[in-house]
Amino acid sequence: MNRREVLTAGVTLMAASTLARGAESPAPLILRRIPSSGEELPVIGLGTSGPFEVDASQERRAPLRQVLTDFFAAGARLIDTSPMYSTAEGVLGDLLTPEMHAKAFLATKVWTRGESAGIEQMTRSAQLLKTQRLDLIQVHNLLDLDVHLKTLRAWKEAGKVRYLGVTHYTVGAHAELARVMEREKLDFVQFNYSPLTRDAEQRLLPLARDRGIAVLVNRPFEDGALFKKVGGRPLPPWAAEIGAASWGQLALKFIAAEPAVTCIIPATGKVEHLQDNLEGGRGLLPGARQREAIAREFA
């Protein structure tokens, strides 16, 4: 069972929730502070790997334009992309309107070797995204870390980027990521975390809290593995206690309940999935016992 089927199974519960709220506007997205600056970000962001890797056809881009329209209308801000995601940076740059640019927090990455190659890649990213100053550039997978951090610190001093950080997406890299977090002054760190893969709780999340590093969470749905785990099962009745009307919302609320998490970046090109994701960043969040119950549901 894929996410669309799992989401469809929760439509009745979502409709009931909507009726219970009546004509009320959706609750605002939960906000989290970036420790190094105090700037606030909504806890739900948007990833671009996969869905935004499309060609120039109107057929492929029209749904993405609607996703962006609804994303910003909801008050969300952070969009994560990368030069490694084929056409994603260019597609995003083409679709962002001036009004969207004024609201957006654009995060991209550098993933190459050598100072000049890194500068060229990051300069190209800014051009594709149609911005003079990027909000966040992350050294992806820690590749040539010292070289790129030196450049990024110079760029930050010059006002060409607002924040710098590092990323990885596998549990096997967590030990090295922790060592980098301990020795470097970083604004952001990005890593994988979900109810199914909780390794980040052992070292990375406590370290981010202690060092004052904002956390971006990638792979919150384990590339769809979470939805395969629950199959066609109905949500547990207690999910309604925290306002979760789908399995996706339950997973996102589990992640958002971790105080060190600043923003979760599920990738999507579907409006129905975006709206479901946004609901995961609103309202009540689970307490410690509820989080353990959520994890057991996905086990």
Describe the protein's architecture and organization:
By secondary structure, the chain is an alpha/beta fold. It has one domain (about 5-20, about 30-299): TIM Barrel (Alpha-Beta Barrel), CATH 3.20.20. Helix content is about 45%, strand content about 15%. The strands form 2 sheets. Strands 3-4-5-6-7-8-9-10 form an 8-stranded parallel beta sheet. Helix 6 (about 115-130) links the parallel strand 5 (about 105-110) and strand 6. The longest helix has 16 residues, at about 60-75. Mean pLDDT is about 95; it is low at about 10-25.
List the helices and strands and how they pair.
Elements: H1 3-9, H2 11-21, E1 31-33, E2 40-42, E3 46-47, H3 58-73, E4 78-80, H4 88-95, H5 98-103, E5 105-110, H6 115-129, E6 134-139, H7 145-158, E7 161-167, H8 174-183, E8 188-192, H9 204-211, E9 214-218, H10 225-230, H11 247-256, E10 261-264, H12 271-279, H13 288-298
Helix pairs in contact: 3-12, 4-6, 8-9
Keywords:
alpha/beta, 44% helix, 299 residues, 8-stranded parallel sheet, 10 strands, single chain, globular, two-stranded antiparallel sheet, TIM Barrel
Strand order of the largest sheet: 3-4-5-6-7-8-9-10
- Characterize the biggest β-sheet: 8 strands, parallel
Low-confidence stretches: 9-23
Helix content: 40-55%
Q: How do the helices and strands follow one another from N- to C-terminus?
A: HHEEEHEHHEHEHEHEHEHHEHH
Structural class: alpha/beta
> Which percent band covers the strand fraction?
5-15%
Shape from CA axes?
globular
